[in-house]
């Protein structure tokens, strides 16, 4: 994957060394064990972990692109020339497409292939199926086929309401309350202009 993304040999060698040639010890009852070689995975809290996950997740997008290119999956058409199928942020993924059994089969095959290639496991218990103007019987059959739950629109993605009327004040009340709670902790502090800018940017 890193070769296809254009990473030079030096970078790939460094990453390989970090993942496969590192050692670690475990804290047991306040005492550390002897170091042992790590054969799989990264240490908990390893700063390299999110970056490696993004590289691996790019593989899922690549598989979906292949399915689109080979007309195995029909994404959502924005216009005659523009369509999309996958939205990703960190470990959250939304797959968007037309309501057809061909699409459902493609999703199942792509996700299974991704699991086999990457070694990651898709959590279907946390996965949800959403339908816009779809028959309930199709949604139930599709959720049973994909082994996931059915939810209704609007729903929240990364804290933002999707499918809700964005012009209504009630849509944004939840987000405004969260922002007020976060800012209230900083209210009593006398921040400089630089401190305020840092707070806003975070």
TrEMBL record:
Listed Pfam families: RVT_1 (PF00078)
Matches recorded under InterPro entries: DNA/RNA_pol_sf (IPR043502), RT_dom (IPR000477)
Domain spans labelled Reverse transcriptase: 1-162
A molecular function GO annotation: RNA-directed DNA polymerase activity
Assigned keywords, A-Z: Nucleotidyltransferase, RNA-directed DNA polymerase, Transferase
Record-given protein name: LINE-1 reverse transcriptase like
